[in-house]
Each structure stands twice: as C-alpha cells, then as structure tokens.
Design a protein that fits this description.
The chain is α/β, with parallel strands linked by helices. It is 44% helix and 17% strand. The chain has a 7-stranded mixed β-sheet, sandwiched between helices. This is Glycosyltransferase.
Amino acid sequence: MRLSCVIPAYNEAPRIAAVLRSVIGHPAIDEVIVVDDGSADGTAEIVAGIDGVRLIRMPRNGGKSRAVAAGIEAALGDLLLLLDSDLMGLSGTDLNALIAPVRAGQADVAISLRGNAPGLWRAIGLDYISGERVVPRALLGSPEALRSLPRFGLEVYMNRRILAAEARIAVVRWPGVASPWKGAKRGRLAGVMADAKMLADMFRTITPAQAVWQIMAMRRLRT
C-alpha cells in the first residue's frame, strides 16, 4: 500500500523545515504533501524551496480540519501518515516506529505518544488527540465530511470512526519528540486563548462525556 504523508501548516516557518528533513526521502513514504493554511510568516515560501514535497496553498486560513481534508483529497496513497508541522526532535527512527505496526498488519491505526505529551496522557498510555497518526484512507471518510468539522474537531472525529470500526490501535511512544506549547510560539495570553478555542472546537464535535468514553474505549483497543 502506498503511504502518503500529509502535513497541515499554519505559521510554522521556524519549525517546518526540520520536520520535512525527517520525512522527505524516507523509504517508507511515497509522497509528502504540505498544506499551507493561509500562513502569513513565509511558511509556504520555505516549503516551496524544498525539493521532494508537494505544496498546496489554501487561499485563506480555514483551520486544521479543512487543511487536512485538502491534503487527503490530493493524496495518492491508501495509507495516510498525518503529522503536525511544529514537531521538534522527529527522526526517521520515530517515523519507522509509527509506520511499522500498520505496515506489518499488527494494528489498523498507529498513534504517537510524544515525550512532552500531558502527564495524564503518558500515565494512561494514550494521547487521544495526537496529531501524528498512520491511518487507512478508507477509515477517515470523505474529505467533504472533514471540511464540515470545526477547525480543530479532526482528531476526535477520527477517534469516532476508529471506534465505530473497532480498529486495532498501536500507541507508539516518541520520548524524544516534542510539540511546543502554544504559549511558547504565540505568547502566554495568545497561547491560552488558542488552547481555549481548540477545546471549544473539540467539544462542538463531541461532548466532554463522549471524550471520556473515547479515551476508555480506545485504551481497550490498544494492541
């Protein structure tokens, strides 16, 4: 099965080149697609100057759900590797570890557990809103359905479909990989507001009670 890597990006000029260095040329990845979600900091220009990546430019910032939908629509692979564009410390070894369980048929879906994930997620062995996943395209549904989601409703929507299919989940620990806190990228107040908006979008997609149920049910499906 061909594997397409889809990376949504919004104002990640300081970080995206490092992510792409780990992804481009990786022997398990057949194509790399970056969807620039209306960035204003030169993210798209940096990506355009790197060989081996296909760049899709969104005309305006529409949120992660829409950006990923555009990438999936353009992708050729039956398997999708979804990555956030701000990861620090990502290596080819980490990508191997995430891809391998699905390629080997040991799991249907693989989800990362980063080294700086919240302590609760590390304690229970699951980051249920991780942005780094390997998933079959068929499991995600149509791009139109993804576009209809709130800006940050993507991961919990994917969880809903994973659970409906009773897909086997491999949780892959990435102790050396981190995602910077929004406050570190945008400033403390802006970071708090961004986190609040993300939570609001999540809970427009599912209720808090459904989020708890997702966590419990996904833990039971771990391989």
